[in-house]
Amino acid sequence: MRGVFLQRSGLVCALGADLPAALACLEAGGVTPARLGTPPQAWPCFTIADASAAAPDWYARARRLIRAAVAQCGEVDRRAPLFLASCSLDVGAFEDATTGPGATHDCLVLADAVRAWLDWQGPVHWVSTACTSSHNALLAAADGIRAGAFTHALVLGVELHNRFSSAGFGALQLLDVRRPRPLAADRAGLVLGEAVAALWLGDASARWRLAGGANVVSGADPAGASAAAVAAMCRLALAQAGLTPADIGLIKLQAAGSPANDATELAGLRAVFATLPALTTLKAEIGHTLGASGAAELALLCACLESGVWPRPRAAAEPALDAAFASRPPEAPARRYLLANILGFGGGHSTLVVEDCA
Amino acid sequence: MTPSLAPLAELILESCDKDAPAGGLAPDEILFGPEARLALDSLDALQVSVAIHKRFGVRIADSKETRRAMATLATLADYLVAQGARLD
Amino acid sequence: MSQWQILGRWLAAPPADWRDRLVARLGSRPRRLGPWCELGLFGALECLADAGETRLPEAALVSVASLHGPDRALRDALAQLREDGLPLPLGFLQSQPNQLLAHFCAATGWQGDARTLGTRAPLDALRIATQGAADELLLGWVDEDGKHGHVACSRWLRLRRQPADASAAPPCPGAPDLPAWLGLDAFRL
Known about the structure:
The complex is a heterotrimer. In chain A, 29% of the residues lie in helices and 22% in strands. By secondary structure, chain A is α/β, with parallel strands linked by helices.
């Protein structure tokens, strides 16, 4: 069976217009989320700092940002399958139109537009499982590469600001009005963020190997996570990778700052890991980028490990959680295998096992 | 049920997609929890909270206050009146 | 290429009483489901029943394809947003296609791998699902009826990968519609 490797990646997020810019910004202390909307519907958001953020032409902005993220991957084979991962798709383009989406609008309008913008020749699919969309896109792409159905695939996570997502998460009382405080005693919710992330996957050896992964949907709570499902996803992913919990040297948590889910995630992990390995989170730096989060956080995490730039813990963890974020990247060889978690509403629990082959 | 509570009961049932319990919703019956006839949960609380904001313009601050205010139909009515809402 | 046995199917158009049949299968009126989710759950449960199952094996994969997704729920929630900036929490949740997956899990007491996928080529969803390691699949194609000419469908197949030495089955039909799949017990893909 073929291996699946992250060949190259691209990221446009609140930290910067590409990965080097994001790392430089992170090293310099990161960014403060912007405040969008008007009270009481004003929510912070880690927006991409581009001049046309407020421009009325949603598609023109999306085109520019998507092209910029994919260009960071260098030369890619445009005949490969493209898996578009997005939670809100192009809702920002029509959410204010009194007639709603146009008469012929469907879920693939953005996918078709991406095909045209990138002059993509291969099939384009939209994977939608809310916050776990990028992980499921990665898992589907990896399946195809392992099975020999294709040798390369592009996973494209796209999440751009829209009032609908902010208001929806606001109505569910899931948002904090400050910078998110993952694991902190006074955490009060997540903060949304924008990201466009491109991951070019292939079967040729590269530094980062996708060793395994799992997606577990649970019906236990339509709006939250389940510790049993977190544990199940870890066990399945480790089994697929042929690893034991002791092999994992780092876990990039979902840890968005949610009062309930942060604790649930740790409870699920503790059912699998007798001793938790080093922990980190990226959501205090780029926000929760929803359907793009799995791709955006994997691109940023790999770049952090390659460069040594590391997200500094911003708040002490709640003592009852008995956990802390690592203040520096774990040293090799302990960090050879890492786990990257994304949990979402709608019962989605997903994780990837990634091997550092350096 | 006093006439002024009927629209409030209707709002709760409609927003939570629940059928009226036998004999209707009593003003002092508990709404939340597995022991309650209506057995509303935290997602229902959010749903009722937004529906109340839309109908009466009253914003309930947080989940603790929501649970206190929504203990029963009568406590919810008292809370809304105290906030200046007109129930009829 | 693998060979797949069809254990169960629901490929017919939803009957007029499909909501009543869903209530009968669930034992009570479902709550918190948007119309697309209800339609999808109806077909999924009919398909499972056709396979003689009430619950999927643990290692199964559920994949749901849709062109329009929960379009009506999205339009309703957007109308609420435009009205006063406040979508109802359930309206927002129902605008997300993955709610069908969570409700399917809750209705059948199952937990496992499940996803929704949008593609213009209906069989791509089948092709992508069969590329994975799962030997047990439940695949659905779900779209609401709408004012734009599309008709309601909730087509489902329950599949099992057959051993390599199984006798040769015909190739996979070109689309997940009725005539091609009726009378078919297995196919190659």
